[in-house]
């Protein structure tokens, strides 16, 4: 019908279509063509209706393609970097309350025939039982820890801090990289772990763990390598001391453990700290005589070797565990094994250290020392075990995945399960031969 208005509905807005006017309001072709080419925003505004999801997506693609303010520009992916807490930051103690067996439930009271009004009773204060205590993992600063160190490198008898820049001092590593003393060699803290099940009144062991290169105590030793957890789950009555070596650096320097008597001073100082954390000052004497198992991973071979050679506490060291760590110092390891036939020695290795491990095995066999190449059997005093791990095991994950999962846990479990080693841990060290 002439003069009738065409029908117009909301779907036309969604499609971006504008209804034409009546013929009596027609315009010229040129004006009509210009109206048809109006931007999409004009009909949307005219309709007063929000664009649908497809339009938003298409618009975002166009914006990003033209280098405008895209989603990625406005909301960049967060950047994370692992770092060690600064001196102004605190290390939150990692604690877990002991789960004790619940007390027997009291029988349910019989329902009263009718409501009974009772006098108020003062609430009873609930105290922890005498046997209840917390598992504790924390950092303790110790003067006898590896760093800071201002002495010489015993290999060449030159100052360890051999680089200077103004008042700043540093160490040039074998790779040629310079690490500054205030950033890399200035952390005197030690990761200390006392399991909830530890009993100073029973035969016990101190595990000294020397971490590898590129590590920090919280991020790597505790959270990634799970060393405290492995000790707790082993069932051995043991505590942990893990000194911070070079902080997050590709450097194996031994610091104060290079010095004669370095290990002894470290163990002597730790006794007071362990007793305080354990909660019984009288136990300091127990800790000061407790046997030691040294675990060295990767670059931790260097402080391990020097502790065995000049540490001054050889009579307390009852076991050595090397985790892909025989990169050198073979003479020091061979000498300790030969002279301490009541202790045990385990070296697990990958293809990276296979050549040196085999060389050390040959040295020991030439001395008439029996060497096993399997971890299947029990662990005995005098055991010397080398075990090669299968291909595919990475060096970085070696503390949690070697010949087995959680290898430190397995070694300590074997030690706990062997009566001879348990007695060895509680008795004075046998004379070296």
From TrEMBL:
This is Alpha/beta hydrolase. It comes from Bradyrhizobium ivorense.
């Amino acid at each position: 019908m002439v003069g009738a208005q065409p029908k117009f509905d909301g779907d036309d807005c969604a499609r971006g279509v504008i209804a034409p006017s009546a013929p009596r309001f027609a315009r010229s072709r040129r004006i009509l063509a210009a109206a048809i080419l109006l931007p999409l925003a004009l009909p949307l505004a005219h309709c007063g209706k929000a664009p649908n999801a497809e339009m938003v997506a298409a618009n975002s693609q166009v914006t990003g393609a033209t280098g405008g303010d895209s989603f990625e520009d406005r909301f960049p992916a967060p950047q994370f970097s692992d770092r060690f807490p600064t001196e102004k930051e605190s290390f939150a103690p990692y604690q877990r309350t002991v789960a004790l067996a619940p007390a027997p439930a009291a029988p349910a009271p019989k329902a009263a025939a009718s409501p009974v009004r009772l006098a108020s009773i003062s609430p009873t204060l609930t105290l922890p039982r005498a046997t209840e205590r917390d598992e504790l993992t924390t950092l303790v600063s110790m003067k006898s820890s590896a760093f800071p160190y201002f002495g010489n490198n015993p290999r060449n008898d030159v100052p360890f801090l051999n680089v200077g820049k103004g008042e700043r001092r540093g160490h040039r590593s074998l790779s040629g990289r310079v690490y500054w003393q205030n950033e890399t060699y200035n952390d005197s803290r030690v990761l200390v772990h006392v399991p909830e099940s530890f009993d100073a009144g029973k035969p016990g062991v101190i595990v000294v763990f020397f971490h590898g290169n590129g590590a920090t105590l919280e991020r790597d030793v505790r959270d990634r390598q799970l060393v405290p957890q492995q000790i707790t789950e082993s069932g051995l009555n043991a505590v942990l001391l893990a000194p911070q070596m070079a902080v997050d650096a590709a450097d194996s320097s031994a610091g104060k453990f290079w010095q004669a008597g370095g290990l002894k001073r470290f163990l002597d100082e730790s006794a007071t700290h362990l007793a305080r954390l354990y909660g019984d000052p009288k136990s300091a004497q127990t800790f000061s005589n407790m046997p030691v198992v040294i675990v060295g991973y990767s670059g931790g071979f260097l402080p391990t070797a020097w502790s065995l050679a000049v540490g001054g506490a050889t009579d307390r060291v009852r076991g050595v565990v090397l985790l892909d760590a025989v990169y050198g110092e073979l003479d020091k390891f061979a000498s300790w094994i030969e002279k301490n036939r009541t202790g045990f020695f385990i070296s697990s290795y990958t293809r990276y250290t296979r050549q040196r491990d085999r060389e050390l095995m040959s040295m020991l066999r030439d001395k008439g020392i029996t060497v096993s190449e399997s971890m299947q059997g029990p662990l005995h005093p005098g055991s010397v075990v080398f075990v090669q791990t299968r291909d595919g095991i990475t060096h970085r994950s070696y503390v949690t995945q070697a010949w087995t999962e959680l290898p430190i846990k397995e070694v300590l479990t074997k030690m706990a399960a062997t009566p001879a080693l348990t007695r060895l841990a509680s008795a004075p060290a046998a004379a070296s031969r």
